[in-house]
Design a protein that fits this description.
alpha+beta; Tetrahydropterin Synthase, Chain A; three-stranded antiparallel β-sheet; 8 helices; 330 residues
Length: 330
């Protein structure tokens, strides 16, 4: 058996509720009809046997109509509701509009577990009632999650700060409602765990030859992060649309040291380029002087000329020329 297959306790079943407007007419007719029947029985000279029992009939019908009125609910675009009857999952309604369903269907899908204050605030923002009960309505819209700055160690053990933005949505409402305690909190916790894991797999910069790094291979790191999140969040019926790093920096305690190292590496790289180009320019000058027979130089004078040209081309400040008014060998 493949161990990578996600074992889900439930699978989403699409179901349809009754048209809310039609049931509204039926329920209003039941309420007002029973009220009219009750008024007629009270005001008329009805002398049939058992009038006490008959007068209860319109009262019960009116109570039934009022009870059935509680089955109405509305869904906005990209919103769904899971239908739960005495603990059993019946199905999910995904179509927006005004609907009616069995009033006995639960309005909540359980209570919120013990969480920290931050996690509780996040969960309430994602469909939790004020009393801590999780609503049976689940949003199918895109969600943006911008993680906090996490302090982790990269592949080389350097402490770094990293953060990411994650765009996700609920795809399977049954998994989101029943396979995890609170899918909003689950997404936040698993996302932070995935970011930490990805950060430990790459060096901040200057990795081994052809090795991707966090700073220079942003697209590759984003693909790896998205793949990691898809594997983790599939258990909750959540799909990740995009994941990308938004903050990347060395931790404050080593930031100054790493900055000086980067500056030194930049100076060395610039010097290498300057020297390489200066040597090419000196070689070109000597070859053209020789080919055009402008002047004939022995090895000693060539060495002196090469030295002077390299000083001029590689120096950090402009060189002050010295005009020779004598001969070349004086």
């Amino acid at each position: 058996m493949n161990s990578n297959v996600v074992k889900s306790a439930t699978g989403e079943r699409d179901t349809l509720a009754l048209n809310g407007w039609f049931m509204l007419v039926v329920n209003l007719a039941l309420i007002f009809g029973s009220a009219a029947w009750f008024f007629w029985m009270v005001t008329s000279n009805h002398q049939s046997p058992g009038p006490g029992l008959l007068i209860l009939a319109p009262v019960l019908l009116c109570a039934l109509g009022i009870f059935l009125m509680t089955g109405h609910f509305t869904l906005q675009p990209n919103e769904s509701r899971v239908l739960i009857l005495f603990g059993a999952y019946i199905g999910s309604v995904r179509h927006s509009g005004f609907w009616w369903a069995n009033p006995l269907y639960s309005k909540t899908r359980g209570s919120q577990g013990r969480q920290s204050g931050t996690e509780t605030g996040r969960a309430k923002a994602g469909g939790t009632t004020g009393s801590g009960l999780l609503s049976s309505k689940i949003s199918l819209r895109m969600h943006n999650f911008n993680s906090e700055k996490l302090k982790v160690n990269d592949k080389r053990g350097n402490p770094i700060e990293i953060a990411a933005v994650i765009v996700w949505r609920v795809e399977d409402t049954a998994r989101a409602a029943f396979d995890v305690e609170d899918f909003e909190s689950y997404v936040h916790i698993q996302s932070e765990s995935a970011i930490r894991h990805i950060a430990s797999m790459y060096a901040y910069d200057h990795g081994e030859e052809h090795e991707p790094t966090l700073r220079e291979s942003a697209d590759e790191v984003a693909v790896a992060l998205k793949k990691e999140l898809l594997e983790r969040l599939d258990k909750a019926g959540v799909v990740v649309e995009e994941a990308r790093l938004t903050h990347l920096a060395y931790a404050p305690e080593i930031a100054q040291t790493m900055l000086r190292r980067q500056q030194a590496e930049a100076v060395i790289a610039a010097r290498q380029t300057i020297v390489q180009n200066a040597v090419n320019m000196v070689d070109l000058a000597l070859r053209q002087l020789s080919e055009k027979s402008v002047v004939k130089l022995d090895d000693e004078r060539k060495a002196a000329m090469v030295s002077n040209l390299l000083v001029v081309l590689c120096g950090e400040t402009e060189a002050s020329p010295v005009i020779n008014t004598g001969t070349l060998y004086s």
